[in-house]
Design brief:
heterodimer; A: 408 residues; 16-stranded antiparallel β-barrel; 20 strands; disordered N terminus; B: alpha/beta; 47% helix
Chain lengths: 408, 156
């Protein structure tokens, strides 16, 4: 909390002193500086569980009555057009990270070269392009929600990738096609409450991805695929695996998350017309073979209506997990493995009602009420619970969010 | 009976006239708003010697939203107007998008590092661009079209 206050003080000082607006105005020829941010607060009805977003270790509910840190962030981006066809982008974002600190991190640092009008290559740190709103999800001003729907986006919450990629555009009678594909890697920090010191990281190597987009007027259709080799190691896990290996080496090898293949598949569309806004996506994460992480899938449908500066919207969504579980020969170890799979069940469904008001062309004020229903014997979107959390019959919880999103 | 007196007093008293004046004011305001100041239509132009003959509405939208960079294999570079009122009118009439929605659209592209919106130029800078760059594409009020420009799209 004290870090958030510090962040808020710095943000306010920058605004009051005119530094951010001055930077916003600074755009000289090939160099431009842009900024985006969100100031948000959320209240959660369940006092025995934390609503969790992305890789954050805390959230509203158990830890805070009202959490001012879950949705709040500040970002700045520098674009330098070295030539008309060469663009260098650097972006940094301050938000709450897996170690519960508000610290700046580099979310983009890349160079984009247009080889021809239709073909561009990009190298460096980029925003992960898997879902419809993946690559601009941090600039929430562009989105219709208080935050991207966790039912789908939390299946792959990783926001950036160190990558080399190409994008090919093709104009046709049907519309504008765009094929984007690349290769990269990323280290993704986990929340630091695994009973271990430090922040363990999920290492994703050999990330190969491709996505195909079709734009036609207000319509956009997108198909995406990503495959990676995932590794997870931290002292406590390695210690536990060492003990299991003494009794059941086969099970220990199966449990060891060391370059295990995981594939992600998504399909979605959006329509943003004069009056109506419709977005829908579905996605699935599935490992190549049974591993310690459960497979999961989820989807959502958002329908909104533009009423001058107001946009009311409704979103329904679900997430479900399937465990192709590892079986151990030793009964005690098998029980531990079963518990580990059970603890990863995040099956839930949501209904969200939101109202957005465009205060200016650069500022949107949002209110959103999420009704969240974890399925029985499931944690739903909650990371941390206390002993009084009703795991067998969680019921329906309410998350109320108010936020201001801006870009300059 | 008492209630009837109170009703008549309401009709003849100031409390009746105040709303009536308010309604009159509203009617006058509405009538006033019907007197539309005729604004010149917006046209999209290229240089007179450009091989481009015309653009469809979909092509204009795709070009100014950065979805394409050519028409009939003719390369085109769009420039936005620095005049906020003209720019808002252009996008509202051609793409049915408010200023906020145009901003949100470009935010998605800019903050994903995929590109930049068209450069904003003043009316005089736009004329210079047309003179200097053979692929320049600009929009302006129809009454400002000069002899060295070719209209390729008009907003009806």
């Amino acid at each position: 909390m004290k870090h958030f206050r510090r962040y808020l003080v710095v943000l306010s000082a920058l605004y009051v002193s005119g530094v951010v607006p001055a930077f916003a105005e600074f755009s000289y020829g090939a160099v431009s500086l842009s900024a985006f941010g969100t100031l948000g607060g959320a209240w959660f009805s369940n006092e025995h569980a934390n609503y969790q977003q992305g890789s954050q270790p805390v959230g509203p509910g158990l830890t805070h009555d009202i959490d001012l840190g879950m949705d709040s962030r500040l970002g700045a981006q520098l674009n330098v057009a070295v030539t008309p066809s060469t663009l260098i982008t650097a972006q940094t974002v301050v938000e709450r990270l897996a170690d519960n600190q508000f610290m700046p991190r580099l979310t983009q640092a890349n160079i984009r070269q247009e080889i021809t009008d239709d073909l561009a290559v990009r190298i460096g740190r980029i925003q992960s392009p898997l879902f419809l709103a993946s690559d601009y999800r941090l600039a929430n001003f562009s989105n219709p929600w208080a935050r991207t729907p966790g039912v789908l986006y939390n299946i792959y919450p990783i926001t950036h990738l160190d990558s080399g990629e190409f994008t090919y555009r093709l104009d046709s009678g049907i519309g504008q096609f765009s094929l984007n594909a690349g290769y990269g890697w990323v280290s993704y920090p986990f929340p630091a409450n695994f009973g271990t010191a430090g922040t363990p990281a999920l290492e994703l190597d050999d990330v190969i991805y491709a996505n195909l987009k079709l734009d036609k007027g207000p319509w956009r259709f997108k198909l995406s695929w990503l495959h990676t080799r995932a590794s997870l190691h931290f002292p406590k896990l390695d210690e536990d695996l060492g003990i299991i290996r003494l009794f059941d080496p086969v099970a220990a090898d199966a449990l060891d998350l060391n370059r295990r293949g995981i594939g992600l598949y998504t399909a979605g569309f959006s329509y943003d017309g004069k009056d109506w806004l419709v977005m829908s996506e579905w996605g699935m994460a599935r490992s190549d073979q049974a591993i310690i992480l459960n497979d999961s899938h989820g989807g959502y449908l958002t329908v909104g209506y533009h009423l001058d500066r107001w946009t009311p919207q409704i979103t329904v969504g679900y997430q479900a997990t399937t465990d192709r579980r590892i079986h151990a020969t030793h009964p005690l170890i098998d029980q531990v493995v079963a518990e580990t799979h059970r603890g990863q069940r995040t099956d839930y469904r949501t209904l969200a009602l939101g109202l957005n008001y465009a205060a200016t062309d650069s500022v949107v004020i949002r209110g959103q009420v999420d009704l969240i229903e974890p399925m029985g014997n499931s944690l739903g979107p909650y990371l941390k619970t206390d002993s009084r959390y009703q795991f067998n019959d969680p019921g329906i919880d309410t998350l109320i969010s108010l936020s201001v999103d801006f870009v300059y | 009976m008492g209630a009837d007196v109170k009703f008549k007093s309401y009709l003849t008293g100031t409390r009746f006239f105040q709303p009536r004046l308010l309604i009159l004011g509203l009617v006058l305001t509405l009538l006033q708003s019907q007197v539309v100041v005729a604004e010149a239509a917006i046209v999209v132009v290229v240089r007179k010697d450009s091989p481009l003959l015309q653009l469809s509405r979909d092509e204009v939208v795709a070009l100014f939203l950065g979805k394409t960079r050519r028409s009939n294999d003719i390369p085109l570079t769009p420039f936005d107007s620095k005049d906020n009122a003209l720019r808002d009118r252009f996008y509202l009439e051609v793409a049915e998008m408010s200023g906020m929605r145009v901003k949100a659209y470009w935010s998605r592209i800019v903050f994903s590092g995929q590109g930049r919106p068209p450069q904003e130029v003043s009316a005089s800078e736009a004329r210079t661009k047309l003179a200097d760059e053979s692929d320049a594409l600009i929009y302006l009020p129809a009454d400002q079209v000069a002899p060295d420009m070719k209209v390729v799209f008009s907003i009806p």
